[in-house]
Write a structure and sequence with these properties.
The structure holds two protein chains of two kinds. By secondary structure, chain A is an alpha/beta fold. Chain A is built from 15 helices and ten strands. Chain B has a three-stranded antiparallel beta sheet with strand order 1-2-3, with helices on one face. The chains are: A alpha/beta, B alpha+beta.
Chain lengths: ~375, ~100
């Protein structure tokens, strides 16, 4: 969802990888998770399993301070997400602030709480782009997956977004239970006059890992989806840009998660914790610094959590002697830890991983098992507020 | 809706609303911000993109660069500008 894709003008502009591990990189983007409150309860939500309560949320001034500090360390883009970020009444104020200090601003929303008046205010505040999530094109299935009757409202919001004049990305998380509607999802994005369609795949940690059997697509579903996307990309060139990534369970090499730990990206949680990725709280042995206590500049450079997997020195074999170690940066730490229990393990999506069998076993059973009921996202663990 | 385009000297290019050009002090280069993308421009591309404003034609942009970089033949500059802009158009960073 939030990996920044970098495009450089010339091939000789490619970073000299020999120096990279010694030098602190300038980050590109910050994902501001303003709240975990959300009317939807999607069973693949990227939020942590332990959700923050409203009373733990960071106040407006602290968010503004963090955004100002983000610009100082070279960050170019601020993504406002959640939970549902429009649950926060100060969203317009934060967008206005971010925009006024030169950040490219993007709102990631379910679209079910926002009206035309508020969209206009966001437009006037300088919002550059909106991304609306769709759970399916079939209204009934869409509402079932979201655990909320919001499909019609989402369609209405998407139309209002274009009416107001904001650029739109349709974000569609695709999986076993909706991939059969991929073609109609592409048609819908064109009808809604979206600039871009993100065909996202469920990433199996947190809530989604609890629902793995319910979501994991078959190889046949995946191959069909890839063909559909390839055909549509050619047919819709200049009309609709389609981002599409094959789910990494079916890949032979790990993804370069977040473009490398602590290299391009940081995430701020509703409580103000600064994380190297939005799922990093699942690495429960790490200590995360907070924007209430430290500047982003200090955190980027000195935070124990950012330095823990930065560069390549931490890597075990087979990563350490691999010629791809500065391409995929060891893959996804959250996935490796969740599936192997070893924080340093090679990402099990890698064909060279000694743990590859933990993915191959569920993959061998895909389609053979009945589809289980969803375990919906919900705030159930009450955290102490100390 | 954006239309697939082939740029000529008569084209009047502009950035789409979702793409923003700015100089980045931290990296000392011009960049284009777009949804979950950052396009880093080299020096020449930075010069050209600063002149892309939805008013000037490619031909006028070439003339401005011709004055700025005295001595370079027009056809060389023209080729450079079109070669630089066309892939940006195909990636959706430039519309008409």
């Amino acid at each position: 969802m939030t990996d920044i894709e970098l495009e450089k003008q010339k091939s000789d502009n490619k970073i000299s990888y020999h120096n990279v591990k010694e030098r602190l990189q300038i980050p590109y983007a910050v994902l501001c998770e303003l709240t975990h409150r959300c009317p939807l309860s999607c069973p693949y939500c990227s939020n942590p399993v332990e959700l923050e309560k409203k009373s733990n949320e960071v106040d407006t001034e602290t968010w503004k301070k963090a955004l100002t500090e983000a610009v100082k360390i070279g960050i170019l883009q601020a993504h406002f997400s959640g939970g549902e970020p429009t649950s926060r009444k100060d969203l317009e104020e934060l967008v206005q602030h971010a925009s006024s200090i030169g950040l490219y601003t993007n709102l990631i929303t379910s679209g079910v709480l926002i009206n035309e008046e508020r969209l206009k205010k966001l437009y006037d505040a300088g919002l550059d782009h909106i991304q609306v999530s769709f759970q399916d094109t079939d209204p009934e299935n869409s509402n079932r997956i979201a655990g909320y009757k919001g499909h019609e409202r989402k369609l209405h919001t998407a139309k209002l977004i274009r009416k107001v004049g904001l650029p739109l990305t349709v974000n569609a998380v695709m999986h076993r239970q909706n991939l059969h509607n991929l073609k109609s999802m592409i048609d819908m994005a064109v009808e809604l006059d979206a600039e871009r369609l993100e065909v996202a795949q469920v990433q199996y940690y947190g809530w989604a890992l609890k629902n793995q059997t319910a979501f994991l697509p078959t190889r046949e579903q995946l191959d069909t989806a890839t063909e559909i996307v390839e055909e549509a990309r050619i047919r819709l060139k200049g009309v609709l840009a389609i981002d599409y990534v094959v789910p990494d369970y079916y890949a032979r090499k790990p993804k370069s998660c977040m473009g490398g730990w602590g290299r391009q990206f940081l995430n701020i949680s509703p409580a103000g914790k600064v994380l190297p990725c939005h799922a990093a709280e699942s690495l429960d042995f790490l200590n995360f610094d907070n924007i209430k206590d430290n500047s982003l500049s200090w955190i980027w450079e000195h935070s124990e959590s950012f330095n823990r997997f930065r560069g390549t020195a931490w890597m075990p074999e087979p990563c350490q002697s691999c010629d791809r170690k500065e391409i995929d940066w060891g893959g996804c730490r959250c996935q490796a830890f969740a599936l192997t229990g070893d924080q340093n393990a090679t990402d099990p999506t890698c064909e060279l991983s000694p743990y590859r069998h933990v993915l191959d076993e569920p993959l061998a059973n895909v389609g053979k098992e009945d589809i289980p009921d969803f375990i919906y996202r919900k705030i159930k663990v009450q955290r102490s507020t100390t | 809706m954006t239309i697939l385009l082939t740029l000529t000297e008569e084209s009047i290019p502009k950035l789409p609303r979702h793409a923003k050009l700015r100089y980045d002090e931290a990296r000392k280069k011009w960049i284009i911000n777009a949804p979950e993308r950052v396009f880093e421009l080299d020096e020449i591309a930075g010069e050209v993109m600063q002149l892309v404003n939805g008013v000037s034609s490619v031909s006028e942009i070439i003339d401005i660069l011709l004055k700025k970089f005295e001595g370079a033949p027009r056809d060389v500059i023209a080729k450079d500008v079109l070669t630089m802009l066309q892939p940006l158009a195909e990636k959706g960073f430039i519309v008409l």
